[in-house]
Amino acid sequence: MSLEIESRFVKRGLWTNIEHGSVMGKTITTDTRTGNLVVAVLAVVSTLGTAHLWHLLSFAYHQARANGKPSDGLFRQQQALLRTLPPPSSVMADAMKLCWAWRKKADRPLLRSIGLILLALIFTVATVAASIFTSFVADVGEIEVLVDSPFCGRVNTNPDLGRPFSLTEIDLLSPQYTHSCYRNGSLPSDCHVFVQPNIPLQTSDGACPFKNKTFCATGAALVVDSGLIDVGRYFGLNFAAKDRVQYRKRSTCTILPTDYYDIYDVKNKTLLQLIGSNLEQDQFAISDWGSTFDKVLPWASFILSMTMAETNGQPEVRQGETYYGKSEAPIPQAWLPREDMGVDNEIGDWIIKPVVPNGISYSNPVNDPLYSAHQKMEISGRNKTYIRYKPDHPLNGVVCLQQRQYCYARNGKEDFCTPLQPQPWVLAGDSFFGSEASSIQNAVLTLVVQAGWLTSTSDVGISLAQRRLETNQPYIESLPDDFWKDEILGWEKESWSRMQIAMSRFAPGADGSDEPGQQEDNWWFEPVTNGEKALCSSQKMKKSGEFVNINFFGLVFILSFSLTVMVVDITILKFLIYMSRFRRQLGPRIERWIQDGVWQLQRRAYEGEGQRDWVDLESEIPLTDKGRLMKDLPILWVPGKSPMPIQTSTFESSGSQETLRPHDSGVEGLSGAVEDQTPQQKSARWYRFGRR
């Protein structure tokens, strides 16, 4: 038996998480295999998209600089660098190399290169950020899933059927869940089954809830208040703000005086058997906190066997009883408080819980009013006598006044809220909540009320004092003076955890539990109203390991943006650039983009060597006549062999030793490497030349 939702009840496909909005909340839930495939596709597409986006930025940066004005070699080489469309990392490296190479030959090379370097750096950082964003599109691990079950419905609380089977599941699961998940700090993985692992509670000191203040042993009371909590947020219901429902439970608890119990010696075998004792003689502590309709002793509130208590070394919190306030519930009162207590059943429900210290002992005296222990006793051990302290009283009573408040949103009006008052019956309907609640709100309110009936604090059996017992140690060192407050807070925490479990069991339905056949036995009601049907598809739970949530907006955005950038880049830089109409509209700047291309730069290099029979000079790709053969370009300029441009300039040899070979003086021989038998040139020489 587990609190985690079964895989068969997880909705697969597209759904909207209202908490994250109608756009960002659109989610696709799928299995991990499909999710991994989607992540891989997104990674590839986003990489392609960023690469093509960089092409467009390089094109735009080149065009912004292509003003047609005379510029030095650094500018021309930067333009050629942009035209080759290298990745951002290469642009940064090459731009820094250009800056270093031209540091003594150009004006302010660092300042003129910093813009290009920063552009590449910023884009690189943005690319990393985009990759991280892509990874967040798929949510793995502990994710929120939507419950989708054909067995959805609510439990039948008809008292004629007895105790609903779902309470067995709650009784078994809630104590451990409360202990693990209702605390501060990091929580274990077992707590990640509900959207909110716990309900926040506030404690404060309050006035005695009785009209007769003498029944408050501590003089005051402890108030445990949840405040108005959003049911959708804290119980994982996927509803819009217009269907908001809020709920509040306020418990005011105090300890009863120890004057209202007596110890009786019982020797009557018949009476002993009726009470549940197999002994021939026993002592019983019988409290007089009010009647409980017990068939044996109807005037008694609680009966405790002293023999059983002394043999049990662990403190206990026993099953309590409830005195219901004004309610239409067809359930008889389980407890009628003493008249002199001054209990007002108009303001809330009253719960009494007996606390039995049993045979526990302490190393030090305990002043806490709930577990007070000052009776000294000596225990002989190995060569030593130990002092222990026994409880002062065999039993104590705690009474809690519980009040509830319900609110729901109204269109164009303030929220409707009931006052703090007793819990209504499950089928109270419009008579209690008014007629302005929507069908969904009525379904949620009914579910909240029903969960409250099924998870009363009177059923809680948690004992924090019992948890203080260490392994193999039959005693407790000591307890704080106000430990009773921690004990009561622990009861309320478990009551809320029980309610979380009860609320989450509506959507999976009866077949979602480990109790088969309950739906056929009228334990479960199928949804009837539109609100109940909507509630069936609105429960969110957390699931680990088997599923992946893909953000639909992120998926569409990455795919559409990347594909758009790819299409624009390929269309403009690969196809439209060939169209004369497009080039005319962009003016001379596009011509400079074309002329800075590697094929045009190659053409100019060959023309510089005398091979000028090129055609389509304004196209991105210049051509030659069919069958025209060209040799490799020479490494150095050769005197008397290379063509003489008309424009005068100077040429400085590299100074390196190269073997220059003679070749034909015709145009055909100028493009290749010179042949053998040319002496080495070892010194730099200056030449003045002009193009023919």
Low-confidence stretches: 512-520, 646-692
Count of helix runs: 17
Query: Could you tell me the radius of gyration in angstroms?
Result: 43 Å
Helix content: 25-40%
Which shape, going by the Cα principal axes? elongated
Percent of residues in β-strands:
15-25%
What distance separates the N and C termini?
A: 96 Å
Structural class from helices and strands? Answer: alpha+beta
Tell me about the largest β-sheet: 9 strands, antiparallel
Mean pLDDT over all positions: 83
Total beta strands: 30
What would you note in describing this structure?
Keywords: Membrane, Transmembrane, Transmembrane helix. The chain has 692 residues and is of the alpha+beta class. It contains 17 helices and 30 strands. Strands 6, 7, 8, 9, 14, 15, 17, 21 and 22 form a nine-stranded antiparallel beta sheet that branches. A four-stranded antiparallel beta sheet has the order 1-2-26-3.
Name a few traits of the molecule.
single chain, 692 residues, alpha+beta, 9-stranded antiparallel sheet, 4-stranded antiparallel sheet, 17 helices, 33% helix, elongated, disordered C terminus
